[in-house]
Amino acid sequence: MVSQPRLPRFGRALSVSAALLALAAIAILFAALRESSESPYRPVVMEEPLLVFAEFGSTVDKILIAPAANPESLTLIQSVPHADGWGINPAPEMVAGRTAFTVLPSDIQPDRSSAAELWVLDIKTTSKVRLARDADLLVAPILREDGGILVYRRTEDSGAQSLIRVDLETRTRRVLHTDQSEFGVFPIGFDEKGNLLFTRISPSGTDLLRVTESSNLEVLLHASDEIARDWTVAPDGNAVAFVTPVLEREQIIHQAQIVSLNEGNITAPVDTSRGEQYSPRWRYDGSLAIGCSTNSSSGSAPIVITASEKIILPAAPVGFDVPLGWSVDGTYLAVRHFSGTGSRDPGDETLVILGGASTRVEITATSDLLFLGWSGA
Amino acid sequence: MLGFILGALVLGIRNTTPTAEACAFDPLRPTAYEADALRNRYLLMIDAASQNRLFPSDSFFRLPAVEVGTRTNRADGIAAIPVEVLRAIGWVESSLTMASKSTRFESIGPALVSFDCGHGIMQVTSGMTVPLGTAGHPSDNQIAVATSDAHNIARGARILAAKWNDAPSSRPIVGTDTAGDPTLLENWYYAIWSYNGFTSLGSKKSNHPLDPNLSWPRAKYLCDGTQSRSRYPYQELVIGCMANPAERGGSDLWVPVPVTLPDFTQPQFFNAIGLANFTSPYQAMDIPTPQPAHRTQIPLTSNDQAAQLIGEPRLRVNDGSVTIHVNGTPAQKSATIRVANPGTRILSWSAIPSDSFLVVDPPAGSAVGNGTPCSAAGCPDGEFTITINPTLLSATNASGTVVIASPNASGSTEIKVHVFAEFEVAAPGTSRSP
Q1: pLDDT, tens only, B117-127
Q2: Which partner from A213, B95, B108, B321 sits 20 to 30 angstroms from B156, CA to CA?
Q3: Quick one: which of B250, B239, B260 has its CA closest to B91?
Q4: Distance (Å, whole) CA A287 – CA A304
């Protein structure tokens, strides 16, 4: 039942027999990403990278920061009270020192369908501000690269789902798009012009769409006949990466895909001999980390694909890693480490920092840790 | 940044405070008895409910025949459900509590009612959203669900059985290779999902295990308060609690059972739950039993034990007549009525006023009988207060009645209420001297 992605606008995906051509396309794509990423999106690293994460508590989540080089040195910067048992659901990445999250307030009976609050947290000032009280809890908000715009999802009384744009300076809110699809829409990021990218899942699969500031809608890609997930937008906004399910050796595994939004070609940057692939995450220079698990007893490490090579990061003795995000300067990668062998038996989960000199440092805690992002200050 | 903060402080937020749906007792809340902290009473009642021993002759609270078989040969089986599933659902729904968190164990307090009208231990929502009795009052069944632990558990068990029986007409089957055997815990996967709503991927209430909003992969739910529920579909919460029981008094509340989840790396499970298949009646979502499978351990319970848990509650109310002076002293402005249970176990009671100017709060509750621990203030009797809404009085002198009855004890008592509302009326344009 699984299928390769197809492109209604650009033709069918490249077949396996065109593997050589695909590799060439990857190289071109990465070269382009690297070139374009050098000017507008090069980060300003103020100080050492700081990992920002949340520690789940039954009624209050703690927001903590820790230096990547010394993660035991924790600083509590905020506490977020919430409905009993229901922690925050953060944006996948921090932008411009800000993170955003949905959360069920403490004064309502907890239920996943309750209207959630939407908050934005400034890491430098540690101030948090509530932006809305009508968000869908399970759908993570996303922040635009400049940190000035946020998009979240709201379910209307009619059942339609709206993607709401919030200007963080003026606090004005505007519906960018309302959708009546059978399953749902999910904001994933912004393209190079600041237009919202989102996915729509329907009985026919997962599509990638773009909506402009003037609410013009465009279907960019049919990504999969099934559920494409773990979407991430390249730092220059010109490409997306995600994973799709494929049938491999009588098992369903996920495989990473990359799509150039300008050219529309889909490529699979890592062959399935690397086993299941997870959660591609871009680095500022256009390199891409992809988690892998080989269902073996020994550890599986993420792969980093640069414009010129594939680098295998240091693996744990056992288990596998699911990338979460690169530090602003690209020297550290936060991952969810699983002690098991793969999706069938993931084992226990911990938050780990992979760094230079082949280091792996686990953040220890007595409850779940949730990655919020990296701060350079 | 300053502008950001100032803007955040100054500009308004759309007032979308979550609004409660109407519930059977709105705007008031009944009271309920909270049993022991070790949950012994509730666990014994769950044992009994799982075997249809609590109210086997009551069509609203008894278990239906639980169907057995695949889509082509479904037939009625015995009226029993796995006790393990019922326990874990009770824990996920309410931590096995009947009253609100502020209520001490072995005492009476406000009943547990969620914003979406989930009531009590099993958070029964079905049939609890609007009053279904006469003249806009709650029905006896609603009162029992809200105030009687035994009825609440029995009703939750019946709803769960109904979710199972929704297959194959409107739900998929687990156990295509095991004849849909309801004694296999793994076969309850879709029924558990349905207890919280058989919601699709992408909805705000999604319980779809492959929903992209839920991280993949994910560690198992440990049911120990260290993981956020928002990261798991409902059925994984319940199955996680079956494998990882809470501990009270130094012991696990139940024997752990490592129920196997469907393995979505296997095509037979992944394909079944595919997007195109999520359409009623979901026949393409039928799946085999996840292996290794685990069979329910039928609890040692008996009709006598169930009868002891339910007891023989009796209704007794002393006062037959009260007088209320609307403009009297604070003590004269209301009347408090105590509801006693000279019988055993838990009495459910309701107090129904005859007229709209009579306000009865709480409108229903519990009273504890002999032999049942109830040590806190307010025990063991129930209590309600009658006050007057003067805007609904048609005359300065009025009278009405409040009928106290019980869904689980015979008889009723009528309290006569005499109301005096002798207001001073000033002439227009004048004011009273201080």
Answers
A1: 999 999 999 99
A2: B108
A3: B239
A4: 7
* Burial B70-81, CB ≥16 within 10 A → b, else e: beeebeebebbb
pLDDT at B10: 33
Judged by CB atoms within 8 Å, which residues 194-233 of B form the interface with A? 197, 200-206, 210-219, 225-231
In DSSP terms, A356 is beta-bridged to none
pLDDT tens sequence across B39-67:
999 999 999 999 999 999 999 999 999 99
ipTM of the complex: 0.88
In the numeric block, the tokens 């669900």 are attached to: B145
Tell me which DSSP letter residue A171 carries: -
Take residue B228 and report the two structure tokens written for it.
Answer: 């956020």
B239-250 per-residue burial string, b: 16 or more CB within 10 A, e: under 16:
bbbbbbbbeeee
Closest partner residue to B7 (CB to CB) among A169, A247, A347 is A169
Beta carbons within 10 angstroms of residue B170's beta carbon? 12
What is the Cα gyration radius of chain B? Answer: 25
Q: Specify the amino acid at residue A269.
A: P
Q: CA A110 to CA A105: how far, in whole Å?
A: 9
Q: Do B202 and A181 touch (CB under 8 A)?
A: yes
Tell me, yes or no, if the pTM score tops 0.80: yes
Tell me the domains of chain B and their CATH numbers.
Answer: 31-305 (no CATH), 312-420 (2.60.40.10)
Q: How far apart are CA A6 and CA A17, in angstroms?
A: 16
